[in-house]
Design brief:
Layout: E1 4-16, E2 23-37, E3 42-46, H1 53-60, E4 68-73, E5 76-77, H2 83-89, E6 93-96, H3 110-120, H4 126-139, H5 156-168, E7 174-178, H6 186-203, E8 206-211, H7 214-220, E9 223-228, E10 231-237, H8 238-243, H9 248-255, H10 262-267, H11 298-302, E11 308-309, E12 315-316
Parallel strand pairs: 3-8, 3-9, 6-7, 7-8
Antiparallel strand pairs: 1-2, 1-4, 4-5, 9-10, 10-12, 11-12
């Protein structure tokens, strides 16, 4: 059984008239996501800005309340949990935020930031809490004298290590890493990614790694899920996705990745998309990608393709390239 099972998850944000406060519609940030995350794996979640990746991650933790669907973690329906039960569950499910400075309280010292969760949950106090925090600080590559410093005294990479320590202090089963290296320099990115890899092996962690950087996702992920306009359009083994992407949107994303070798760059097939991403407040009928898809057919505008599995376990939502499609 998967560690995390998501079924038809929807997170809508209502649009209301500023004068009459009437409900005019919804922004469908997450629109019917079905996804499994296996114990011990890293699932990369990829898509353009605004596709709903971060909203999905926060909905899983109920930092944003979903509109509908189901989320089961360790076999338990977390959408049915009350406030106190959900607070206890969050010790098993943590998050690393994108901005390593905005996510840290500037008025609290590092030791207080990391140990705050232990205090709130009554897990440790006094010298015991200090010892736990110091062990975590050392494990993420920070020094003992960092304990009494404030966030503004650290570099971006060090602040992200503090964020990792705060998530790790509970020894969770799963961590959602929301663009954890996008704000960092390339050399620091490599250090943080290597640290996350070491921690996964040491603490038997499961990651959902959210990013728009496909090269980073290729490096860290066992499987990759591609998201477009609030929906999952392709899921597969990382090597299979990068070697033989099936969905036209995935192909377009991969063809836009910068390549250091100019000869290889000139040889690859570019997939150029027309138009802009549609509004999640007014998504297209049928396949949400069809207005920009170079392979779209009549059925694509009329019927939404289901996310179906082909013979090798690859999941794809596409009428043309899916299991029942004719390809192009």
């Amino acid at each position: 059984m998967a560690l995390l099972e998501i079924r038809d998850l929807r997170t809508y944000f209502p649009i209301r008239s500023p004068l009459l406060s009437r409900h005019l519609g919804d922004v469908r940030a997450v629109d019917g996501v079905t996804l499994d995350v296996e114990d011990g794996e890293t699932l990369g979640l990829v898509g353009e800005s605004g596709c709903g990746k971060s909203t999905l991650g926060r909905s899983i933790l109920r930092l944003i309340e979903p509109t509908g669907g189901s989320i089961e973690f360790e076999g338990q329906n977390i959408l049915a949990l009350g406030y106190a039960e959900m607070r206890d569950m969050r010790r098993r499910m943590q998050i690393i935020f994108q901005d390593p400075y905005a996510s840290l309280n500037p008025r609290m010292r590092v030791g207080e930031i990391i140990g705050e969760g232990l205090r709130i949950h009554g897990l440790a106090s006094g010298p015991e809490r200090y010892d736990v925090v110091m062990r975590i600080l050392n494990r993420v590559g920070l020094r003992e004298d960092h304990y009494d410093r404030y966030p503004h005294e650290f570099s971006g990479g060090q602040r992200q290590r503090i964020g990792i320590a705060r998530a790790l202090v509970f020894q969770p089963r799963m961590i959602i890493a929301d663009e954890p290296v996008s704000a960092l320099d390339v050399s620091i990115q490599a250090q943080i990614l290597n640290l996350l890899d070491e921690l996964q092996s040491e603490f038997k962690l499961t990651y959902i790694f959210i990013s728009h950087d496909l090269r980073v996702v290729e490096h860290v992920s066992h499987r990759v899920a591609i998201m477009y306009l609030g929906k999952i359009v392709e899921v597969g083994d990382s090597k299979a996705i990068y070697a033989d992407a099936r969905h036209p949107y995935t192909r377009a994303l991969l063809s836009a990745v910068p390549m250091p070798d100019p000869d290889a760059k000139n040889k690859r097939d570019r997939v150029l998309l027309q138009g802009d991403v549609p509004s999640p407040a007014n998504p297209p009928s049928g396949c949400s990608f069809h207005p920009r898809c170079p392979f779209a057919e009549k059925i694509c505008a009329e019927v939404e393709p289901p996310l179906e599995q082909d013979g090798d376990g690859h999941l794809i939502a596409c009428h043309v390239f899916g299991p029942d499609g004719k390809g192009a």
